[in-house]
Amino acid sequence: MNDQERYDNGMQVRRAVLGDAHVDRTLTRRNEFNDDFQNFITRFAWGDVWTRPGLTRHMRSMITLSLLIALNRGDEFRMHVRAAFNNGVTRDEMKELFMHAALYCGLPAANQAIHDAEKVFAEMEAAEPGSTTRVRNDAQG
Predict the structure, then answer these.
(1) Which residue spans traverse the membrane (predicted)?
(2) How far apart are the C-alpha atoms of 88 and 6, rounded to whole Å?
């Protein structure tokens, strides 16, 4: 696969996972300074790693959330909470992930993740008032 094919595949997955609105915002902010970086993450993160056949996107979202909790990367974590719903991750699965992360990453990291996730849930529900099914618990949905 050449770089253009990798970029095109990466952009397709990036849009599917993060959503068109998010990707469009990043594209409108591209400039001479960050263009190489945007190209790099599209080709390698999304075009190489996220397209590999060994894991589902659902599993990749769960792994990504776990790693971002451990690394205390709040902005990226909140972005991937939103993205996880596009990959079929439920609130109940996230709740279990946070409990598990509390053991291995520490209570403060998991506590912060819970608060950050709750903010994202509220923002998503406010943006789609009649369509909260994307952020419901399994038992509610």
Answers:
(1) none
(2) 24
52/44 Cα distance (integer angstroms): 11
- What is the rounded average pLDDT for all residues in the chain? 91
Nearest in space to 47 (alpha carbons), one of 3, 80, 2, 9: 9
Residues in the chain: 141
- Report the candidate in 57, 59, 66 with the shortest Cα–Cα distance to residue 100: 66
Closest alpha carbon to 42 in 77, 84, 11, 3: 11
The pTM (predicted TM-score) of the whole model is 0.87
Alpha helices in 2-133 (DSSP H): 3-18, 20-28, 35-40, 57-71, 74-86, 91-104, 107-127
Q: How much is the average pLDDT of 37-55?
A: 96
Q: Identity (one letter) of the amino acid at 2?
A: N
Q: Which domains does the chain have, with CATH numbers?
A: 1-52 (no CATH), 55-128 (1.20.1290.10)
